[in-house]
Amino acid sequence: MYFLTGWPRRLLCPLRSAEEPFYLQPSTHRFYVAVLSDTQLSVWFSRPSVMIVSYIESAKAAAQFGLYQKAEWKPDDSMIAVAAAKGYILLFDVLGGGDDKYLYEPVYPKGSPRVKVTPGYKEEQCAPALTLEMKKPVDLEAPITSLQSLQEDLLVCTADGYLHILHWDGLGSNGRKAISLTSIPFSLDLQSARGGPSLDLEGVYIRCMEYCLTLNGFAVVLSDGRLGFITPLSSTITADQLQGVWAADVTDGTCVAVNNKYRLMAFGCASGSVLVYMIDTTTGSMQLSHKLELTPKHYPDIYNKTGAVKLICWSPDCSVAMVTWECGGLSLWSVFGAHLICTLGEDFAYRSDGTKKDPIKISSMSWGAEGYNLWVIPHKPEKRKQEEQLEEGEEVEMVEPPPPSLQAGILQFQFIKSALTVNPCTSNQEQVLLHGEDRLYLTCGDPTQVHSTADTHNTHAHAHIHPHDDSPPHRPPSPDSSLSQGLSTLLGHKHWHVVQIHSTYLESNWPIRFAAIDSAGQCMAVAGRRGFAHYSLFTRKWKLFGNITQEQNMTVTGGLAWWNDFVVVSCYNFIDQQEELRLYLRSSNLDNAFASVTKLHSDTLLLNVFRDMVILFRANCSIGLYSIERRNDGPNPSASVELLQEVSMSRYIPHPALVVSVTLTSVRTETGITLKAPQQACMAESIMLNLAGQLIMLQRDCSGPQVREKETPGNNKKLLPFCPPVVLAQCVENVWTTCPSNRKKRHLLEALWLSCGEAGMKVWLPLFPRDHRKPHSFLSRRIMLPFHINIYPLAVLFEDALVLGATNETVLYDGLQGAAEPLEALFPYCTVERTSQIYLHHILRQLLVRNLGEQALMLAQSCASLPYFPHVMELMVHVVLEEEATSREPIPDPLLPTVAKFITEFPLFLQTIVHCARKTEYALWNYLFAAVGNPKDLFEECLMAQDLDTAASYLIILQNMEVPAVSRQHATLLFNTALEQGKWDLCRHMIRFLKAIGSGEMDTPPPTPTTQEPSSTGGFEFFRNRSISLSQSADCIATGKFNLQKTFSMPSGPSSKGREMECAENMYIDLMLWRHARHLLEQVRLRDLGCFSAQLGFELIGWLCRERNRVARVEDFVMALKRLHKDFLWPFPVIPVGSLSSPLKNGQCRTVLGTRLLKSQSDEGSLLNSDMDTAPPQAPPANHTWLGEIRPMAKDMETVSSAHSHQHAPQTHDAFLSPLTNKAEEYSIGSATDLTETSSVVDGDWMMDENSSTLSLSQAELEHISMELANKGPHKSQVQLRYLLHVFMEAGCLEWCVVIGLILRDSGVIKQVIGFLDSPEVPPETVQSITNGLLAVDTWTSTDCQGYKPFLNLIRPQLQQLMETVSEQVQPEAFQPTSQSSKLSGAEGLAGGAAARAEDSRGATTPLGLTLAPLEPAGAFPRPPSEDCPPEQTEEQGDEEGAYDCTLS
Description:
The chain has 44 helices and 59 strands. By secondary structure, it is of the alpha+beta class.
């Protein structure tokens, strides 16, 4: 409602005087403020806040009259009455100077257009020069306790128990009446007043009194602390015509303030609480409505130490009350008790170092114009000198007071308020609009529009959505909701959009009285004293009246609203002296020429728009309904307005000022709620009136004879009359309703939302029968559900199930301490921040409490797509659990089982329960799981549903609730499932978790993993500083653990027992990992095996060494080959049709070309495997590619490989063909970056050849080349296969090497393997298996896959050799296992004759050797580690079966 902003201003009194001001009294319209000090009356102007005139009493007169005490203005601001201590009333005439006399005037630059103004226009922006003249004083002969002004009379209460009635003008003896308080009969209600006072009022007088216009009576506090209300029974106030009622059981009243709009009387008490009473309309008795008091929950230190209530001030719009106590402090409450601000806690009361500040004590306060500021006079103790001597410690702070002229006189606190307070027509929109004295704050507009605005730099408030316990988690804007004014714009960014009100309009029409925003949140309009102005966020411009005369000749009376592109204004026209309804088009100039004007017969108090209808509430208590229609017939669009219906409400409304808001809605209670068509659902079905906090509903009367729509012409369709009003709710501050547009969320969109002060919010929810069944006759069609929220609601997002609000936040600046603390150190800087809150869980819970589970389910299902729906479910469980599990008394009908059953209807059930449990303390878990089920069963459900992350959360609960054996059993289950599904992060956590159980840390759940674990080092510690040779001894593997475990290992105790436990635990984990690896290999899932090894740091080579003759065998080569093609997305090779069918025109060339292609591929392959010095960085890229991250290294590998094939190109038969082949290869496989990286090599060195070669290539040859290239798989798969080939080669799994060699069609690999088969270490079964496998593949290619034929032909000599070897069973020369000779022989076997050829043609390759050097550093891979630390890397293998170490130095 109201929010503090910035720091308070300090107004310095310009007169040199030792007297301190102590009393403030604003004039009726609050443009002037009378300020009293002991012998001085001064009048201040409100904008600019300056003193205009001061009257100083002479010493002689001061001695006669006594010191000033109170003051009161005449309603027309022409007189001031001052009460003096010795019983005198001093009356002053306030005389304005002539038209030309101004105290302060604006100075304009020469030639400014603002100088030429209309007569009477200038006074609006200047402080007028006034004079005060004292009239004859009136002696009442007793101390004066209270002054109260009526229209023509001044009521004065004196300490001798009399009530004096003085006429403002005729102040002779005839103009004066005195009524004794004892002659007024007081009773508990008006009905029991049978005669004779029931209260003994002897010696009692009225201590404080205030007149309430709408109740037509006086709220009084008597000197004995009783509270009363005095009503004049006739129009004139005479002794025999007054009747009093008093409030029972209250004897400590101190002060009173009345709220005219809501007919409330707020009485301050000595206990520190404020009692708010209303008058019962039937009996006339005083009834307690609610209390305003600080709660021990929020203010534990101070709630009972505030002292008596000193002052209460209702704001000018009657929506909030400011309270101050004897001990100081300010506190703000909304009209029905929602607490908004208090300066007795948090940053207001404490410095940043935690020391307590003294609260500011207040001797007088009053609201400024329209409630934008609060004028406060701080209390200055008179005996300060004595206090100083008493309290030595404070002497430092109170060094000698500053010179009298600079003594702090008045503080002004700045406020911004919601537009709903004065213009409640904005309540059917989904934006929050606040307005301050000179700026607007709004929560709408796209995030992109917010940043570039110049107004934003001017902001007082920067907002953050604070996560209250119910606030939704922040989410990024989603593209699909950009059309609705939904989450993307309202939560996508957190700052206010601050719009500065145009200074030209503001300075002549201050203060701003109304503000409105359109439904899209893009246009605003404001209305001040005269005229209005509007602003567009699209153009970032204000539109003002071009003709100032037009602006000054109208004043907005009933508010303003937007209808499509039009501003709807109800205003008073001063020239015609006529109330009018005007519509101005936004896009045209602001001028009466473009307005459509409808004359009205009575003053308008309120205005609202619903669809194409305007509803007006008038001063004669009638309601007018008008239809608006857009007309495009003229050059500019215009609107025509037509009166539809008049409804008189004078029977129900005692005073027109009591109506707070009027709204048209489509909400109905009973008939046909389910059968309505959606078009009909948006009809204006009923009128909602907020009458002084009572929400009254008038529905259309559908009981009469119905006229079918077809029979009536469209325009003059007669509207149905309204039924008598029904009261829906009490204590209502705001109402929100919308027009249902989304058929899915009918519950939320057809509901009525109420804000009810301290009672929180209420929603009037429709209940729908399910599946269009006939509704139960006993079941109500709507239900009113109350719920509490932590913020003050300012807007409701109906479809998004959110309440938007604002809250005050504070920033401390207390480093500014000096001898006397400055204001900025005393008060924190206040900002206003946006907040939002979910309310859905409250409503669902209320429905479940009332056994309306079916309705709750329908409502929840309609909202299940909301991003924070899981959060809603968690909150519901959490709130109910906290309440029931911590309750001291047993709960007869617990709600938790119902809530648990309700949540099982949603797929989120398992997550909701476990998240709620993990956010709740352990002590409540038993209660929770007693209601929702055993956590073991829930864990198994998660596994069945494949929801492993949730299962992992349940594991932590099991670990705390069950014995270690149970949690290990479940952890093993989860670990195996995670391995099977490739959830590597989870696997890593499970390894850590199992170790934690093993190392005896059962009491604490395992700590959360460090952030870098999964990505940066985790999987690659194993490969970090190694060359491509990954060989490692097998015993090393058997005894030690893989390196990754060091990352995960838990801190274990020094005891040997702990170490044994850890070893056993590691062995247990290793066994599971081995089992999984075996499983993958048995199913020929090589790609998964590679991922598994890289992600979990599994020692693949060591494990394969041991499994070489067991699971690492290949049973069926053809099946394995097919499986690899599928896994690695590798295409089966095909033979181009042309080469088989067409007559061979250039046969030799084509054959050569085929051989060349195969050769280049095999060279590329063999070199990658053999030339370790030129191409070492293969292992790291391979590892990274398992992770699925394409790194630049992969590209460089491609570059290196193509460079190798360049290097060997010149040795092939037709050298001129090779550059083109390689060029084509680059195009087909490499990306754009590959081309740029390699083009220097290709183009620079081979330019001439390339030009000449193009001439000798035919179309068929090009087809053949492209076909060959199409037979290659993705580059990433190639890198992965090469890496696996290398791993299997290291581990000596020769059968797998053959399979991978086949898929890569790399003859070098096949030759190398067949070379190895001569070794005595190779068991004969392996030789036999490879021979049979290759024969099976040969057979399969003949029948099913011809594309492999050319490659098999290429390796036929080796195959023949192998067959002979097998048939002869002859042992070849022993293969030396020592590292040096194995390296040499390996090199010869591996590269075949390639090395020799390279020697012969060394000259030819020199240019390429030079260009290769700069290519390596250009890549992102690390420098070859083998060059840095060769000794560590060459690890001997000591396996029993011998070793195959294939590293070339």
